[in-house]
Amino acid sequence: MAPAALAEPIFNMERDGIALEETSDSIDQVNILKAKLKVENGTATQKEKDIYERSQWDAEKDKTQFRQYEEAGERVKSFYREQHEKQTVAYNLKARNDFKFKTRAKMTIWQAMEKLNTLIDESDPDTSLTQIEHLLQSAEAIRRDGKPRWFQLTGLIHDLGKLFFFFDAQGQWDVVGDTFPVGCAFDKGIIYPDTFKGNPDYNDPIYSTKNGIYTPGCGMDNVMLSWGHDEYLYHIAKDQSTLPDEALAMIRYHSFYPWHSAGAYHELMNEHDIKMLEAVRAFNPYDLYSKSDDVPSAEELKPYYLELIDEFFPNKVVKW
Predict the structure, then answer these.
(1) For the whole prediction, is pTM greater than 0.70?
(2) Of 59, 61, 68, 78, nearest to 30 (Cα)?
(3) Of 270, 238, 15, which Cα lies nearest the Cα of 119?
(4) How many CA atoms lie within 13 A of 166 on its CB side?
(5) What percent of the chain has pLDDT over 90?
(6) How far, in Å, CA of 235 to CA of 145, rounded?
(7) Contact (CB, 8 A) for 123 and 217
């Protein structure tokens, strides 16, 4: 008997994609300013300075054009309070189980980009750039700097996990925002660490200990990070692409600021993670500073990136 055809994907059209993007942008602005202030006040390490100035593209950009912390702060703090209270071990186990046993849609990578474009931008006639243009900005900045083809593709797709918002997400809090491990103590290197006090795991006799359910040196592959667009896309790319480990790390860890920027949770790393951390730090400037006034032409660039997608996604139709 032939397998039943997958029903047309059902997107939650009640979700406010513009609000999600505004929250995501505010989170980025806070992270940008935190990095900038560390460099300017002399508290950044040489490595952090190198990360901040690493890409040729980034070195030419005036980072002071972004809004200041105070303008984004209250919105971001309110978001993180909800995220920090709801990202529990129990929720994360359920999210992974749901992911494993459910296919939400079948689309090519480019179709997914177009769908994200529609879901977020369609209701906002004043948006300056479409989602596809934002994705292409990251990829093109990486391409201009002569990075490998897999690196370019990673820049193109790294935020596609935001589609999860229109599938099974509980809200914005399990889609965007800085990520962190669950199942062990919440490190002070996480943004707004005091907002974890409402999380049921905060006082758990096991989860509240430094290592919790993990052992030192266990490796980040064995650590359960808070569920969001990063983790969602990481599992898709891990199972359905031939992208190298460095690309998978960029996708999974690009929002893991406590780890790649604040130096937290390094005791859980193994030797493999040292190389992955360097890859994530190389990617970070392209993630944070890729929004500019230059508008890439999706139609002109589409043939190049379709070829790139086919190179690393052998099955053109991806299970979401």
Answers:
(1) yes
(2) 68
(3) 15
(4) 24
(5) 62
(6) 28
(7) no
